[in-house]
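Give me structure tokens for this 195-residue protein.
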Amino acid sequence: MSSCPFSYLWLIRKQGICFRLISLLLIFTSSFFFIVSAQEVANEDKIKASYVFNFIRFIEWPSGETDDPSQPIVVCVINRKNQFIKAFSPVVGKKVKGHLLTFKEITSPHNVEGCHLLYIDKAEKNLFSRLLPEINKHNILSISDSEYFCSLGGMIGMVTKKGKIKVEINLDVAKAAGFKINSNLLEVAKIVSTQ
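Here you go.
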């Protein structure tokens, strides 16, 4: 009879150790998945940044905007989380079509002057209605990774579907702003109209 309480205590201790081990395992795996998902987001942002870099090669700005090769092409980014600007670091200082690429972080819709291209992160979609009319007046190429960006009046969208980035282009908006888009880019894009 005396062994019964002992084995009961031993069982409680054993369960306590198991509970702690399971808790530690859950904490470790959840932090591991967080690290993996954060890394996946960073990789996806780098892929999107390389898309943006390559879009510049296939687009002609309106006359006078990029005529002087000594002037840089200014890529502006609206992303208050500051993740996407880091994704551009491999292409900072590189040249595209003879122009040096420079980057500028924008915090307000009113600071778009001097931008040739504006990337608007999907997290900033609440700014679309204020930004897009302003951008389209200033001959700024607008790009976003938000779904429905092009149908709302944006020029180029990068929509992730089933783990793949699909390019959408609102050709009417781009043409109205004076942009010419190379047929090679148009062939791989889905053409979208403003709704």
